[in-house]
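Collaboration report, partner site 2.

Our partner group contributed sequences for two proteins of shared interest, and the home lab folded both. The records are reproduced in the order in which they were received, starting with the first partner submission.
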Amino acid sequence: MKLAHVYVNFPGTADAAFTFYEKVFATKIAMKMTFGDAPFVKDAPEAAKSKLMHVQLPLTDAVHLMGSDVVEGMGPPVKFGDNFSVSVVAGDKAEADRVFGALSSDGGRVTMAIANAPWGPYFGMCTDKFGVHWMVSLEGPA
């Protein structure tokens, strides 16, 4: 078994979040569908039709970041918590610094500055402007 993808729900900001992540990770959205575009969602409320039902952004050949907006009345309400972080491992120090800086910019916040961690690898933690927690690292020290 392996972890294949990470799925994040948003309270109406999925499109903005994934446009941001597209720039951060220098990749392109592979798939995006709104509730209004989904043929199997026949009774979507008018306010939900422009919201994202599913979006998929490849981070590597094997791992995709996926997400959706949570629409009232169409599932449980979104509730952000501190129960998960998305962890990415960069190819080199420059990439780690660039991704960490982008994720923590524009209203994001650093919770642990990126640096060589006491347990070994180059590592940092931040929360982006959408409230998603991130861990950015290298396999070893920089």
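Second partner submission, folded after the first:
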Amino acid sequence: MTTPWRWIPPLAGSGPFQMALDELLLDQAVAARVPQACLRLYSWSGPWLSLGYHQRHLPAAWLALAGQGQLGLVRRPSGGRAVLHGGSLTYALIQPNPASDRRQAYRHHCRWLQRTFAELGLPLSFGTGQAEGDSGSCFARSSAADLVHSNGAKRIGSAQLWRRGVLLQHGSLLIDPPRELWSQLFQEPPPELPLLPEGVAELGVRLRRAAEVDLGGGPLQEQPLDRQEWAELHRRIASKLKVFP
């Protein structure tokens, strides 16, 4: 019998909080004798720019905006380019023993997202890999890991980290990104996205329901963080409070 996926209720928090929690959940799955898959949706407290694990060049404008307190900087454990978190939802899923082919893993782990937007009358397809600029932004290009609308506008960007047979997949789902800050960072406006016909709370419910069909194969098991996890999380947050560069 398949073990139900764990669902962690949405938590808003800073960049260091969110990235420390995702890495904690990944490490728990790696260390567990019988690892459990896990999914969560979350938002960020204030605007944060998350950097891909291998993204080392930081434009002076990014550092200046961070120094002025207009946004925070944090590094993701997953790859990819920079993502501005504001007016968006982020998802993180941890899957032990996923499909070994990365392209296949992306396609499997994005079905629930495609189902949700198809139900809204806004179908999404995978990107082509064609770059639209060199701004350092995740949303400046649409790769085969990303989901775009029929007009080519990128709605969801995803990235992965594989650790000892366990997959962490991150994704950012744009809803209403801050246009002025986006333009200051990336020297271009955010994607021109179709308006969603419902609010963020309703979208979250719809996403969870789709995940139960396409990921867990049944109801997700709601399981908030326990005391031990909270303690370990707070210990780890300090390591994410890195000053850039």
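Feedback sent to the partner group on the second submission included the following. The chain has seven helices and 13 strands. The two ends are 48 Å apart (CA to CA).
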